[in-house]
């Protein structure tokens, strides 16, 4: 099985912040892979725009080095050379007038025009205003904006107003790379494409759901930013919220952008307030594997969390009474992103073995993407009916073969969706605001109480208080494993 590659329309993609870390690590290598796959048409063009004073030849050299450094495999020289021919560069001042006339001369009117704001949110409004002033956009132009999209509800509303002054909602693509992952999209296919699961996808049959995003790395060079955001703002408000929505939402009438996003919004608006005893915050300590969080952020009294766990309820007909347990953290035991649906026990077991047996559906987002369904069977051998739980494991690589597994990076898929004009995997403005409206009271609550994050060891599964939170409900976390 080989995945199909459907070329997109000719386009001009302008990357503001085209020399920055995100552009070098993700955007440009991703575009190169799409070029090699045959998805970028011959008339496609990528225009870097940044403060650095260089010409197109200099920029192509920068991009060449970035692709070699951040590609999984050594790129073919001929293919890389051809890709670089599609690149241009303009030195530009986001808050001034330098470079805008030159950019206006480069951008074509007869192709799809997309503008990637790979810069800090403080520049979004300036870029939007200057694009409009210099006539660089029309009704079909698109802008892509990166998180953080605000740090609270007020700032998110302000950013939405700034962009709405110059662009319609259908032109704004708020990117969350988690939604571009193959397994996240397979989650929707599993739910809505199989009769097996959807009738059971409710509080009558599901005991609880766990969503885990664990990282082995610390904050590293992001210390200054992370100390002002923390795990709640950096991960829960966006990445984990999106996964929660996809797990909990009602089936949309069609697989279309607004139909999907309408259902996600309903989930966010149905979220219950989180009680203080259903929140655990943690902060990693120093070990032989690295510095303590406070050392990395340069604040010996920091109360910012590097770990957070929450028990969340959804007040609607489908999920009333079913808890959702969310957790994310840095410097944990393994790098793992997983959604686990734990079904209820049988009302009555005819076998009388006294054991607890549950069906568990596990969707692994990274690493080793795949889906596992735990089922109960008879233990082989003589001696009566002894039951054991075994996994039915569908690793995509094993099931589809190496050629059948789409190794497309999330950014590749999402950028191509921007060119196609498909907003299904992008957040809408009201969705972002609703997420902040739920998140803000949680943050204000622990700040008002003066809560101090619980210390936890590096390479552990997080603070012991998180274990106790589930133990009170007679439940346990899934092991954090690669």
Structure overview:
This protein has 482 residues and is α/β, with parallel strands linked by helices. Helix content is 35%, strand content 20%. It has 14 helices and 15 strands. The protein has a 9-stranded mixed β-sheet, with helices on both faces. A 6-stranded parallel β-sheet has the order 3-2-1-4-5-6, with helices on both faces. Strand 1, helix 1 and strand 2 form a beta-alpha-beta unit. The radius of gyration is 24 Å and the shape is globular. The mean pLDDT is 91.
List keywords for this structure.
single chain; 482 residues; alpha/beta; 9-stranded mixed sheet; 6-stranded parallel sheet; globular
Helix count equals: 14
Radius of gyration over C-alpha positions, nearest whole angstrom: 24 Å
Q: What ranges have pLDDT less than 50 throughout 5 or more consecutive residues?
A: none
Count of strand segments: 15
Mean pLDDT: 91
Order of strands side by side in the largest beta sheet?
Answer: 14-13-12-11-7-10-9-8-15
Order of helices and strands: EHEHHEHEHEHEHEHHEHEEEEEEHHHEH
Q: Please outline the major beta sheet.
A: 9 strands, mixed
Strand content: 15-25%
Cα distance, first to last residue? 27 Å
Q: What does the overall shape look like?
A: globular
Helix content: 25-40%
**How would you classify the helix and strand content by structural class?**
alpha/beta
Oligomeric status: single chain
What is this entry, summarized?
This protein has 14 helices and 15 strands. With 482 residues, it is α/β, with parallel strands linked by helices. The two termini are 27 Å apart.
């Amino acid at each position: 099985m080989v995945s199909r590659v459907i070329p997109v329309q000719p386009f001009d993609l302008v990357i503001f912040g085209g020399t920055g870390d995100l552009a070098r690590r993700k955007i440009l290598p991703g575009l190169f892979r799409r070029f090699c796959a045959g998805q970028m048409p011959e008339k496609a063009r990528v225009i870097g725009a940044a403060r650095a004073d260089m010409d197109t030849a200099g920029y192509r050299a920068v991009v060449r080095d970035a692709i070699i450094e951040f590609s999984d495999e050594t790129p073919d020289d001929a293919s890389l050379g051809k890709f670089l021919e599609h690149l241009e560069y303009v030195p530009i001042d986001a808050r001034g007038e330098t470079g805008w006339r030159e950019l206006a001369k480069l951008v074509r009117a007869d192709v799809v025009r997309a503008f990637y704001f790979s810069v800090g949110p403080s520049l979004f409004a300036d870029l939007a205003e200057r694009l409009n002033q210099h006539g660089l956009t029309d009704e079909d132009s698109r802008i892509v904006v990166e998180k953080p999209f605000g740090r609270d509800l007020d700032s998110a509303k302000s950013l939405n107003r700034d962009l709405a002054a110059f662009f319609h909602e259908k032109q704004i693509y708020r990117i969350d790379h988690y939604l571009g992952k193959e397994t996240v999209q397979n989650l929707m296919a599993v739910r809505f494409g199989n009769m097996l699961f959807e009738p059971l996808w409710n509080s009558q049959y599901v005991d609880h759901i766990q969503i885990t995003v664990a990282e082995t790395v610390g904050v590293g060079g992001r210390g200054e930013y992370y100390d002002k955001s923390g795990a709640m703002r950096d991960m829960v408000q966006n990445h984990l919220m999106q996964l929660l929505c996809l797990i909990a939402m009602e089936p949309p009438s069609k697989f279309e952008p607004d139909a999907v996003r309408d259902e996600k919004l309903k989930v966010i608006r149905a979220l219950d307030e989180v009680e203080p005893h259903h929140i655990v915050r943690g902060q990693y300590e120093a070990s032989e594997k690295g510095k303590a969080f406070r050392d990395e952020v340069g604040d010996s009294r920091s109360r910012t969390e590097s770990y957070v766990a929450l028990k969340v309820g959804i007040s609607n007909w489908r999920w009333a009474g079913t808890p959702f347990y969310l957790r994310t953290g840095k410097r944990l035991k393994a790098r793992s992103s997983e959604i686990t649906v734990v079904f209820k026990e049988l009302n009555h077991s005819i076998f009388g073995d006294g054991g607890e047996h549950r069906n568990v559906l596990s969707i692994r987002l990274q690493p080793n993407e795949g889906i596992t369904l735990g089922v109960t069977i008879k233990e082989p051998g003589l001696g009566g009916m002894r039951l054991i739980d075994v996994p039915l494991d569908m690793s995509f690589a094993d099931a589809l073969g190496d050629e059948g597994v789409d190794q497309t990076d999330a950014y590749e898929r999402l950028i191509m969706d921007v060119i196609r004009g498909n907003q299904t995997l992008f957040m809408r403005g009201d969705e972002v605001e609703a997420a902040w409206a739920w998140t803000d009271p949680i943050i204000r609550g622990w700040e008002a109480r003066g809560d101090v994050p619980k210390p936890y060891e590096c390479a552990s599964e997080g603070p012991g208080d998180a274990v106790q939170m589930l133990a009170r409900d007679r439940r346990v976390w899934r092991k954090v494993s690669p």
